[in-house]
Here is the input.
Amino acid sequence: MSLRLKLQLVVVADDDEQVSVDELVVLTKDYEQLEHVGLSLAEAKGLLLEVQRQVVGRQIAAFLASRTPCPTCGRRRGIKDHKTIVFRTLFGKLELVSPRLRRCPCQHVAQASMSPLVELLPEHTAPELLYLESKWASLVSYGLTVKALQDFLPVDARLHATAVRRDALSVARRLEMELGPEPRFALAGCAAAYASLPAPPPPITVGIDGGYLRHWERKQTHFVAIVGESIPTDGPAKRFGFVQSHDPTGARAYSTTRNSSSSRMGRRACVSSSAISARTHSICSIGFTSPCN
Here is the structure.
């Protein structure tokens, strides 16, 4: 004996009236052995892919319907042609039909045609996929990141380590731009100068270390990466990292970590490192307090 399960996607209006009912998948499940209980990994991945395809399809259709009328006069604009946009998501790669709309006669200075879907999806990779690619790529190699994602998610079967590397670097560049200018540590180097400031919060513990890494393109070249973790007593831990030989403004990384840890001027940092003497210059350059001479 086996069970037949039919999963459907029901779209409802604001008044709860059913608009459409679409069949997602039909499962035939046995139940007499342990391995039969629940969804298998393949079934779960297939179900996620189909749900994603149906949900995104409905969203895109609603979006395009709202953008077809001219925003000035409300007249329905004609379709010039269609193109296909590939949208990479955490739950599968989707091919979306993107119409190009003709310019409305009431508009005389606008371009001849426009694609609403291109404006909605300037990047063809979903933020959730970028997040997991970047998170895993910061912990393991790009190749292992691909294998991990493909093991439990219905991502693109042709996902390659090169694509993960490109996406991770894109996220890293955007985060670098958000760090802002190089901070100024006005009182760095003289602990006695902090006496005039209000009582600071409890000190934070900062672990800092470094290691030699091989250059991705020039395999015979190595560089030193410095990483650290800020552990305040009154909030979550924050991490930072930089390559001093390539980034002359590495203090931004530590400053951002310090500010996000609810720190302020005068708060002490207890630095812990397995090679503190070898990295004295790096530690001082990012604004840690040192005793007065």
Q: What stands out?
A: Residues 276-293 have pLDDT under 50 and may be disordered. The beta strands are 3-12, 18-29, 79-89, 92-102, 113-114, 204-214, 222-231, 238-242, 269-272.
